[in-house]
Design goal:
Helix content is 75%, strand content 0%. It is an all-alpha fold. The longest helix has 30 residues, at 6-35.
Length: 83
């Protein structure tokens, strides 16, 4: 074994060890995720706020049906602009 190749051997050994640690840690996390089911929380963000707003429009009895249609048309235009 040559002394010139010693640094290459050490570097390769370190990379292999770190790769093995990564694989084992990933496997351990996957096993823990399988044990407990996913618990989703309340949705957040602009999409969830918009859906909540639309739900309030339909559940609010004080808003007239004509106003509801007008608001929904405005929302449709905004969604089309986003796409």
């Amino acid at each position: 074994m040559n002394m010139e190749n010693l640094d290459l051997i050490i570097l390769t050994t370190i990379v292999v060890i770190l790769f093995m640690v990564f694989i084992l840690a990933t496997f351990k996390e996957m096993q823990e995720d399988l044990k407990k089911p996913f618990q989703g929380g309340k949705e957040r963000g602009p999409r969830a706020d918009m859906i909540d707003f639309i739900g309030r429009i339909f559940s609010d009895k004080d808003i007239e049906p004509g106003e509801k249609k007008e608001l929904l048309n405005i929302i449709k235009k905004k969604i089309d602009d986003i796409e």
